[in-house]
Amino acid sequence: MKFALEKSIEILGQTPNTLASMLEGLSSDWTASTGDTSNWSPYDVVGHLIHCEEYDWIPRAEMIMVHGESRAFEPFNRLAQFEVSRQKSLSDLLSEFCKIRTVNLEKLARWRLTPTQLARTGIHPEFGKVTLAQLIATWTVHDLGHIRQVATHMARRYEEEVGPWKQYLSVLKD
């Protein structure tokens, strides 16, 4: 499928509700952070998504629109949630994520981006030249990847308990 802004917005708009539906009201046995930076819990993922909303997607889109290739993106701390989210409840994080995502999607809609604007380029500190369309497509796939990560983390809580069915459960083979 070719990139289409409206298709990305469909996914980006659903992510907060999807995660809230999956996680709200669950016991911490399913969701709590262990502080393991290589095996994120649902709590860690939601904290990360908030940090991305604040410092990644829209700020980098603005950099592309304002500065183009004359200024590289600021480096992004992929593990900031382990400090920033500490002491917040998962319910509070889900609410915060929903609010900031709504604000960011409203901003994105107000821009009324044209194909020419979506083709504008900026400089990623690791990848070099990237387009605004690539950034938004990545934002979309990033959300989907983290929804999968949440489901996988939760499924692994019962990895041994499923017994011989494990061989048929693809979520436990990743």
Report on the architecture of this protein:
- The chain has 174 residues and is mainly α.
- The chain has a single domain (5-172), classed as dinb family like domain (Four Helix Bundle (Hemerythrin (Met), subunit A)).
- Helices cover 59% and strands 5% of the residues.
- It has a two-stranded antiparallel sheet with strand order 1-2.
- Strand 1 and strand 2 form a beta hairpin.
- It is elongated, with a radius of gyration of 18 Å.
Short descriptors:
mainly alpha, 5% strand, two-stranded antiparallel sheet, Four Helix Bundle (Hemerythrin (Met), subunit A), 8 helices, 174 residues
Short description:
With 174 residues, the protein is mainly α.
